[in-house]
Amino acid sequence: MLWTDLDRFGFQDPWRTFDRLNRATSGLLAPSMSEFPMVNVWMDGDRAIITSELPGVLPTDVDISVAGKSVTLRGSRTTEDACEGECRHRRERWSGSFTRSIELPYLVDQDKVEARFSKGVLELTLPRAEADKPRKIAIKSE
Amino acid sequence: MTDVNREMTKKEASVPEGVERTMPRRVFKPDVDIIELKDETVLTADLPGVDEHSLDITLEKNILTIKGGVEQKIPAGYRLAYGEYEVGDYERAFTLSDEVDKDRIRASVKNGVLRLVLPKSPVAKTRKIAVTTA
Predict the structure, then answer these.
(1) What is the CATH topology of the domain spanning A35-78+96-130?
(2) SS3 for A5?
């Protein structure tokens, strides 16, 4: 996901909507290109909060790295597999490893990133780097 | 990467036709794993955002219902700039077989995952008849 064009496109990239429509109509024929885990991004001027639902993932199993404008989430989850033979009734939960990168519209202050994990929901607070903030220019009147 | 490549969208829980929910929020069907062991059946459900206080498990006759309430926290002053998933409650029901010992059902929630252990009743266990060759 690239955020660079966000301002130009407004709320959501229309190509993404096209992509979704295309995927919905082509059904099972097209291989899924959906990104995982799904994220929600909340913005407040110079701060962003990224939330993601990662039930059953231990905080120690998530690796968060910030470089410039992008944040990368890496992690994995294993599901219980205590049975042998035909004892599995349903298997719907995901397992395996994931990598997800999100690009923000500004440089992130790496030292001030906060991550909280509660009830299987990850919440990342990413403030904008001081050096990247727009500088106010004073106007001199004569 | 094993099976995480498949489409990961939340599935909406079903309601009987013509019936509406009282609260205008979305209700999803959690993903579950059910495995049957020798003495018990173990149900695991992904319920992100649910803890032991907001989870409601009921057993009426043979219908086991799992309901999980999720409180959506909208960060004050923030606006949703990009959304891929929706937050809502969870609901799913299963029909249990008679062989579950209903008094000994155990449930625990950790990191948004429910683990429900449904022990088999002793009656069902002793009903097994070993056949030997004469």
Answers:
(1) Immunoglobulin-like (2.60.40)
(2) coil
By CB atoms closer than 10 A (0-12, 13-18, 19+), residue B75 is middle
Q: Would you give the DSSP letter of residue A129?
A: P
Which of B33, B39, B89 has the highest number of chain A CBs within 10 A, making it the mutation to test binding with A?
Answer: B33
Residue B33 belongs to what domain range?
24-73+85-126
B120 close to B97: Cβ distance less than 8 angstroms: no
Q: Which residues of A touch B66 (CB under 8 A)?
A: none
**Nearest residue, CB atoms, A53 vs list B48, B80, B81:** B48
Among all residues of chain A, which has the CA nearest to that of B47? A55
By C-alpha distance, the chain A residue nearest B2 is A96
Is B2 inside a domain boundary?
Answer: no
Note the pLDDT of residue B2: 45
Reported pTM: 0.77
* Tokens read off for B93: 């029901």
Query: CB–CB of A39/A51 below 8 Å?
Result: yes
**pLDDT, tens digit, 9 for 90 and up, residues A55-100:** 999 999 999 999 999 999 999 998 877 676 668 888 899 989 999 9
* Domain count of the fold of chain B: 1
